[in-house]
Amino acid sequence: MISRIVTLTGNVLQPRNWEVRLGTPLCDLVALGQPKADTSKYLMGGPMMGFEIPDLAAPVIKATNCVIAGSPTLFPPSPPEMPCIRCGACAEVCPHELQPFELYWFARARNFGKTQEYHLFDCIECGCCSYVCPSHIPLVQYFRFAKSEIWSREREKQAAEAAKARFELRNARAEREQAEKAERLARASTARSSERKPASAVASAAVVEAGVSGALASEPAVASSAVDADAQKKATIVAAMERARAQRAAVQPRNTGQLSAQQQREIAAIEARRAALQAESPPDTVTPPERAAE
Ligand code: SF4
Ligand code: SF4
């Protein structure tokens, strides 16, 4: 489809149907109809359902069925909007048997849920209700406003749901990756421990064997070293006692300078006996000199 039939009518000298290529600027199309001097606006669509074209640089599209040149005579300004008197005229002319006055109230109160309950989206925006309304209420404009608000909220809701789904998917992916990583690490750790196990088992077995054999071999050594330590301890004690005795003997006053020859002979005999006794008795049972002298 590269062209379509477009009706050009209204405040023009040459009203007729034109076959127009899609994409043709509307200003070129309306120029073919020779608009009159008092033309004030252009509508796309019918006189009741059409909407004003804001800029004639817009192109002809697939939905462009009619262009109406308007003037203040053809489209006089709407009288001021008055309150709804609930006459029901709008409901009588509705081709879809809707309740336009109810839809109007709910749309005005921004109660969009109720407008949907009253089948707002069944409205084809024919404009009959607005046309017959004695209060000059632009009912179709209210219905369009309600529909656009519902669509906008629906888009926001879908965007929020999509964001929520993305968030949940992301969380699930993160958890799955974390679990997979933990599993990989656990598998690697198990593999490493199983690789290390034979070597460590051999090493530990060797250590155990070495420990057992070492323990068995070291028992006599430990026993002999204990005996040596006792003997060394005793020898040290005996040596210390000898040193102490020698010191005592060295510092002991003899008082033999003033003695007679007889007394010195007796002392010499006593010393000889003591020495003989010390030579006979074992080192650890040495008789104290004082006792021996007695
Ligand atoms: S025709 Fe207008 S005034 Fe009458 S009920 Fe409908 S909206 Fe209200
Ligand atoms: S504009 Fe909608 S509510 Fe009004 S008469 Fe047409 S279909 Fe019915």
From TrEMBL:
Which class of enzymes does this protein belong to? translocase
Residues annotated as transmembrane: none
The GO cellular component terms are: plasma membrane
Q: Does the keyword Metal-binding apply?
A: yes
> Where does the record say this protein resides?
Cell inner membrane
Q: Recorded E.C. number(s)?
A: 7.-.-.-
Official protein name in the record: Ion-translocating oxidoreductase complex subunit C
Give the species this sequence originates from: Candidatus Accumulibacter phosphatis
Q: Which lineage?
A: Bacteria, Pseudomonadati, Pseudomonadota, Betaproteobacteria, Candidatus Accumulibacter
Gene (name only) = rnfC_1
